[in-house]
Amino acid sequence: DFKRLVGSRIEKHMDVTYAYQQLDMLPEGVAIPEGRVKPWGTGHAVLCCQEYIDAPFLAINADDYYGVEAYKMAYEKLCALQDDEKARYFMVGYELTKTLTENGYVSRGICQVDENGCLTGVKETTHIIGSCDGPLYTEDGDTYHRLPADAAVSMNMFGFTPSIIEEMKATFPLFHQTTVKTNPLKAEYYLPGVVNDMLEKDTASVEVLRCPSRWYGVTYQADKPQVKAALAKMAEDGLYPTPLWQ
Asked: What distance in Å separates the CA atoms of residue 210 and residue 67, rounded to the nearest whole number?
């Protein structure tokens, strides 16, 4: 289905390669726990692409709409991205209010950014809603607290050099020995977790590129018509051709 709906159209414009995330694609010496069927998570998904990665690259969520501006920013940064004494990565961040939905609450990774515009940490914040007073969140379901409307949030759009692959090959076995031991059937190796660990070890820096565009996703069924209308408006304004695949 993916090849027919997406790949067959994109391959007319660029080279397309497929990497498959399979349960047994693991570093040497790592075994699949008995009964495990759940995929290993987003970090493992990138690790499964290692044979095709030979230059700086972008990792995204497959079901998010990031916007034209985000890809322009990422492309310009990727063209010059290289490691020095540290791994040099980046993340495209969005303003919190431009990632919320009117149809319920969401969870977002609120970014802590230093004076140089680099990421120092991501705080996973659950139950965030929009209101006339701006974004609010609650931890107990009763008391709501304010969040800055322009707070940078991570929507999992990361730019990496190939060094991230070597980091994951080295740390996946440790994840397997610790986290998997306590939760063998469901533990996942998350890409943001790999990044956060490198920040804590001070082996990487992650520049936060602030994207002015709105992010779109379908968290609730009621979001779908709103996202469709937004995309239709973009086509009407000439941002995308109609039909899209000509």
From this structure: 13
